[in-house]
Amino acid sequence: MAKCPTIVGHRANSPIWLQRYIEAGVDMVEFDVWYKDGKIGLGHILEDERHVTLRERVARFLLSIHIRKPPSPTELPELLPRGMGVWLDLKTRIPPEELSVFKGLLYGRQVVVSTRWHSDIPGIRRVLSGAKVFASLDHRPADPVEAARGPKADGLSLRFTYIDEELVKALHGKALLVAAWTINEEGNILQAIKMGVDYIITDLPWEALKLCRD
Questions:
Q1: What are the distances in angstroms from CA 8 to CA 20, 21, 135, 138, 166?
Q2: Where are the alpha helices (DSSP H) in the chain?
Q3: DSSP-based three-state secondary structure for 93
């Protein structure tokens, strides 16, 4: 089997899910990050035009009654075990300088930032020096290498549907990385591992870790 990718626990904004990921010993945890009224917060902002999962409905309800609020950005370094990586998925456009609130995460752990606002990537790299920055896409780019190199990204973060061996090979050939989201089915996890993706983002990281180790 190909080398096991970094396994990322998806949407660790909920303290309950974060604790489950920590107990499972996952490589990295992902937080959705938003910016509103000049403030950065952790939590998923639901988009009205897409299907809303049951998990998201429950999360929104709990937040609405102020139970188990997500941690603040400044609390993260103390909440996470030493060495556990952090993936910050920017759900809204955030001025790069505002991301300096996450600088405390850069010591002793891997940090990755993904964004759909590709023109902001150079600024993010400047503010969070040492973090990897991925261009996030929900389609198959005609030229994957240019899609990453154009905005000076370290790689592409793509819905699993749009990833194949040709894309992975093209990006790896230029020392660029590939992240696949959100993969929960065993067959898809095994396929992603076989294709050689660098990161698997999943709601079931313990299952992905087991498949890697087996």
A1: 13, 9, 17, 18, 23
A2: 15-24, 54-64, 76-79, 121-127, 144-149, 165-172, 186-195, 205-213
A3: coil
Under the banding of pLDDT at 50, 70 and 90, the label for residue 213 is: confident
Residue 104: CA atoms inside 13 Å, Cβ hemisphere, count?
Answer: 10
92-132 tens-digit pLDDT: 999 999 999 999 999 999 999 999 999 999 999 999 999 99
Structure tokens at 126: 């400047």
The answer to whether 101 and 73 are in contact (CB under 8 A) is yes
Give the distance between the most distant pair of CA atoms in the chain: 49
Domains of the chain: 6-213 (3.20.20.190)
pTM: predicted TM-score of the whole model, two decimal places: 0.89
Question: Bridge-partner residues for 112, per DSSP?
Answer: 87, 132
DSSP letter for 138, please: S
SS in 3 state form for 15-39? HHHHHHHHHHCCCEEEEEEEEECCE
CA angle (193, 117, 22) in 5-degree steps: 45
